[in-house]
Amino acid sequence: MPQLQKAPVMAYVALGANLGEAQQTVLRAFDALALLPGTQLTARSSLYRTVPHEALGPDFVNAVAEIATRLSAPDLLDALLSLEHQAGRLRPYSHAPRTLDLDLLFYGDARVQSPRLTLPHPRWTERAFVLVPLADVCPSLVAQELLAAVADQQIERFSQPDSLTG
């Protein structure tokens, strides 16, 4: 059982899926994030359709969640991996298609470099499927120069976020 910290930390999680009912899987993952111990879902982006970037398979459904969590970064990572597993995520090879992919992008201002976890996420600035939905939930994190650098990556908004109720 994870120990909860006293003060919540704002964290950002990228969500993606390209197998099965990808849109429903991402929507369920938003709900699952809100149910993590000591965690509140504070914002969610629109849903976006993207072609696989450095990956294989059908188009992805992508989004970003903003959460306030009292879980430590390692405990949050464990919880994300557990949610992926519950959604049937398999890792047969690098960049394989997936039922659910949850990447911890930021955990407050933490800078972590370990074999298990790197924060901020090492490739967040290279991917339109992260930058565009991240700009939905926290525009101050995404400079226009970053968006311009990924403008050649195809991304299409197809669903507006539902408003969150406290």
β-strand percent reads 25-35%
CATH superfamily: 7,8-Dihydro-6-hydroxymethylpterin-pyrophosphokinase HPPK
Mean pLDDT: 90
Mind summarizing the main beta sheet?
6 strands, antiparallel
Topology, number of strands: 8
Enumerate the spans where pLDDT stays under 50 for 5 or more consecutive residues: none
Number of helices: 4
> Helical content, roughly?
25-40%
Total count of domains: 1
Structure in words:
The structure is a single chain. The protein is α+β, with helices and mostly antiparallel strands. The protein has a single domain (9-159), classed as Alpha-Beta Plaits. It is built from 4 helices and 8 strands, in the order E-H-E-E-E-H-E-E-E-H-H-E. Strands 1, 2, 3, 4, 5 and 8 form a 6-stranded antiparallel beta sheet that branches. Strands 6-7 form a two-stranded antiparallel ribbon. The longest helix has 14 residues, at 73-86. It is globular and about 40 Å long. The two termini are 26 Å apart.
Short recap of the structure:
By secondary structure, the chain is α+β, with helices and mostly antiparallel strands.
Give the SSE map.
Blueprint: E1 9-17, H1 22-34, E2 39-44, E3 47-50, E4 60-69, H2 73-86, E5 101-107, E6 112-113, E7 118-119, H3 128-137, H4 144-149, E8 155-159
Antiparallel strand pairs: 1-4, 1-5, 2-4, 3-4, 3-8, 6-7
List keywords for this structure.
166 residues; alpha+beta; Alpha-Beta Plaits; 6-stranded antiparallel beta sheet; 4 helices; 26% helix; 27% strand
